[in-house]
Design brief:
globular; two-stranded antiparallel ribbon; ABC transporter involved in vitamin B12 uptake, BtuC; single chain
C-alpha cells in the first residue's frame, strides 16, 4: 500500500510540472494557433534565473524560494513576450515558418545557456523542509512534491479565472473567434496576444524553478526534456483545452511512474503507446474540439 501511495503522490508532483509547461502550450495554441517549440527555453531560463536569485541571496529559506519563484515567472514572461513581439507576431497563420523559427530559437537558446552557465548540471537545494519527508499511509514522500501540486492547482484556477472573468480574458477569447470584429471596435488584439504569450511564459518559468527543486538540479537541457512530455500531454488532453491538459498531465505522469516501477523502467514507452492510441482512436484528444 505504501508503495502505491508513494508512486501516486510522486506521479502527481511530476504531473504538476507537466501541466505547468503544457498549460502555456495549450493556451498559446488554443487561443492563437501557434505551436511553440521554444517553450522549453522559457522554462530553462526561468529555472536559471530562479537559481541565480537564490545563489545571490545566499540563504536556503522560504523567502528565498518564494523570491526565486517570482523571479523565474517574471523572467519567463518577459522572454515569452519578447519572443512573440519580435519573432511570432508577423508569422500568424504561417505555421511552417512558426515551427522553423521556434525550433531555431530553442536550439540557439540551449547554446546560449551552455555559454553562460556551462554544460554541466548544477545541483541545487531549497528550504530545509524540502529535504524532509511527510508520512502518508506508511509512505515517506518528499515535501517538494506537495509544493508542485499546490502550485499547479493555483495556476489552473488562475488561468480559468483570467479567461472567463476578466476584461482581457474576454478580449482574448473574442479575438480568437473574430479578430477583425474586435479590431473594428478599437481594441488592439496584438497586445492581448502578447499577454497570452507572457502568461504562458510565466507558467513555464514557474515550472522551471519547481522542476529544478523536483529533480534537484538545473541544466541547459532541463526545458527540452520536459517539453517532450508537455507536448504529449497537450496532444492527449486536446490541443487548446486547459482542463484536458490537467487531466492528461496526471494520467501521463501516473502511467510513467507505475510503469517504471512495475514494468522495469518502461514508463516512457508506455506513455508513447498511450499517445499512439489516442491519436488512432480519438485524434482530437480527451477534451479537444473536433475539427
Amino acid at each position: 500500500m505504501s508503495t502505491i501511495v508513494l508512486l501516486t503522490v510522486t506521479g502527481l508532483g511530476l504531473g504538476a510540472l507537466y501541466f505547468l509547461v503544457a498549460s502555456g502550450l495549450s493556451l498559446i495554441y488554443g487561443l492563437m494557433g501557434v505551436l511553440n517549440f521554444a517553450h522549453g527555453s522559457f522554462l530553462t531560463l526561468g529555472a536559471f534565473a530562479g537559481w541565480e536569485f537564490a545563489r545571490r541571496a545566499g540563504a536556503d529559506n522560504w523567502w528565498t524560494f518564494l523570491g526565486s519563484l517570482l523571479v523565474g515567472a517574471v523572467v519567463g514572461a518577459l522572454f515569452a513576450a519578447f519572443t512573440e513581439f519580435v519573432l511570432i507576431r508577423k508569422l500568424y497563420e504561417r505555421h511552417i515558418e512558426q515551427v522553423l523559427v521556434t525550433v531555431g530559437l530553442s536550439l540557439a537558446s540551449v547554446a546560449l545557456f551552455d555559454g553562460i552557465w556551462g554544460t554541466d548540471t548544477i545541483h541545487i537545494s531549497g528550504p530545509e523542509w524540502f529535504r524532509e519527508t511527510t508520512g502518508i499511509l506508511g509512505a515517506q514522500i518528499s515535501n517538494d512534491r506537495f509544493v508542485a501540486i499546490i502550485a499547479a492547482v493555483l495556476v489552473l484556477l488562475g488561468l480559468v479565472f483570467f479567461l472567463k472573468r476578466t476584461r482581457y480574458g474576454m478580449i482574448i477569447r473574442a479575438g480568437v473567434e473574430s479578430r477583425s470584429m474586435v479590431t473594428a471596435l478599437g481594441i488592439d488584439v496584438r497586445k492581448a496576444f502578447t499577454l497570452v504569450f507572457a502568461i504562458g511564459g510565466a507558467a513555464a518559468g514557474l515550472g522551471g524553478v519547481l522542476a529544478s527543486h523536483y529533480f534537484q538540479y538545473v541544466s541547459p537541457l532541463l526545458g527540452g526534456s520536459l517539453l517532450i512530455f508537455a507536448f504529449i500531454v497537450t496532444v492527449i488532453g486536446g490541443l487548446g483545452s486547459l482542463t484536458g491538459a490537467a487531466i492528461a498531465s496526471v494520467v501521463v505522469a501516473l502511467l510513467q511512474q507505475f510503469a517504471n516501477f512495475y514494468l522495469n523502467g518502461t514508463g516512457d514507452f508506455v506513455v508513447v503507446v498511450a499517445l499512439a492510441l489516442v491519436l488512432l482512436f480519438r485524434p482530437s484528444g480527451l477534451l479537444g474540439r473536433k475539427s
